[in-house]
Write a structure and sequence with these properties.
The chain has 2 domains: 2-166, no CATH class; 176-366, Histidine kinase-like ATPase, C-terminal domain (Heat Shock Protein 90, 2-Layer Sandwich), CATH 3.30.565.10. By secondary structure, the protein is α+β, with helices and mostly antiparallel strands. The chain has helices at residues 2-24, 26-39, 41-44, 52-82, 87-116, 126-131, 133-203, 209-226, 234-252, 276-286, 332-343; strands at residues 232-233, 256-264, 270-271, 295-304, 307-315, 348-354, 358-366.
Length: 367
């Protein structure tokens, strides 16, 4: 059953894409409209026309006049007079052209369409057609402009769809730009913190310094080059988190009690990149760095049935420590929340529990 629904979704998506492409192609849209006008001739023609062949003949012969009247009205009279609030000129122009097109339509019907259809009935003269002005105008006006009204409706709908699509594209581009800006804030801040860690290790002449450089290289490669896609594999994010946690272990040594548990039920599940690392970074920045003695950080990540559960707990000093170098200022929770709002609108729950000696973040995302 699932496969049937999947197939149906693919078909519907294909139809939607096709309609989108048609609506964006102005020439193709116009051709399609007039082709439909011709094809529906048998069911929309006058009651006096009983044969399908005859219906097509009259519709095809009349089509040029319908098209000229429609395009002249929409693309000349409306923008030239109506949109410029020249209502008198618009009314005069429209009535005049409506009379002319009605006369031409009747002449076309009698001398071309009826002849092609094989009619042997006597034909009125052109002078008689013009003389019978009232009959010609009121009898053929609606025939001339019937599809003009329909064309306006279709055009209005199409213009609305195009405008809506343009707004959606602009909104999407704005979202992408803002998201890239938020992600870009993470890179220099993370690099600053890690280089500080590396500097501390080099001062102590630690044997772990080369290991830090290697892990830092891998992390920067991932953050700069592999995170350009909107979504990445969760397991790749876990690798990034593991690298970061390993660096912090090297930095804090024995005074850090850290656990990191992860479990995912699907190795191909994806997530927006660099959101989770910001949460972990905050745990060290606001928690571990402020504690002189032993600090605790507990991290758990689980993905079950396409839902991610991410929990980070850390201890912190009960009394805020001075931060003259603005080390703890960082990118803040606001950055994390904004990324979640942009990527996972109404699909996430973020709960922050702050107490005097601990800080906990519980995040749930519908991936």
């Amino acid at each position: 059953m699932t496969s049937v629904f999947s197939l149906f979704s693919v078909i519907m998506e294909g139809k939607t894409n096709f309609l989108d492409r048609v609506s964006q192609n102005r020439t193709l849209t116009h051709i399609l409209f007039w082709v439909i006008v011709v094809l529906i001739a048998p069911i929309t023609s006058d009651d006096t026309i009983t044969e399908i062949r005859e219906a097509f003949i009259f519709r095809i012969v009349a089509l040029p006049i319908k098209m000229i009247a429609t395009y002249f009205f929409i693309y000349y009279q409306i923008p030239k007079f109506w949109q410029r609030k020249k209502y008198f000129k618009f009314t005069f122009s429209f009535i005049l052209t409506a009379v002319v097109f009605s006369i031409l339509y009747r002449i076309n019907n009698i001398y071309v369409a009826e002849t092609l259809a094989g009619s042997t009935a006597p034909k009125e003269s052109i002078g008689q057609i013009i003389y019978e002005f009232e009959y010609t105008f009121f009898g053929y006006f609606f025939r001339v402009y019937y599809y003009t009204i329909l064309f306006i409706i279709v055009k209005t709908f199409k213009d609305h769809s195009v405008k809506k699509r343009q707004i959606e594209i602009l909104e999407k581009e704005k979202t992408v730009t803002e998201l890239n800006y938020l992600k870009a804030q993470i890179h220099p801040h993370f690099l600053f913190n890690t280089l500080n860690n590396l500097y501390a290790l080099t001062l102590d002449k630690s044997d772990h310094a080369p290991e830090v450089v290697a892990k830092l290289s891998e992390m920067l490669d991932y953050m700069l080059y592999q995170c350009n896609e909107p979504k990445v594999l969760v397991r790749k994010e876990i690798e990034l988190l593991n690298h970061y946690v390993d660096l912090e272990k090297l930095r804090y040594g024995d005074r850090l009690q850290l656990t990191f548990e992860s479990n995912i039920d699907d190795s191909q599940v994806v997530i927006a990149p660099l959101i989770l690392i910001s949460i972990i970074e905050n745990a060290f920045k606001h928690g571990v760095s402020s504690i002189v003695e032993s600090a605790i950080v507990k991290i758990s990540l689980e993905v079950k049935q396409n839902i991610l559960y991410f929990n980070v707990f850390n201890t912190k000093a009960s009394v805020p420590q001075s931060d003259e170098m603005d080390y703890k200022k960082g990118i803040g929770v606001s950055n994390i929340k904004r990324q979640l709002e942009l990527v996972y609108t109404n699909q996430y729950d973020l709960d922050i529990i702050e107490e005097s000696k601990s800080y906990q973040v519980n995040l749930k995302i519908k991936l």
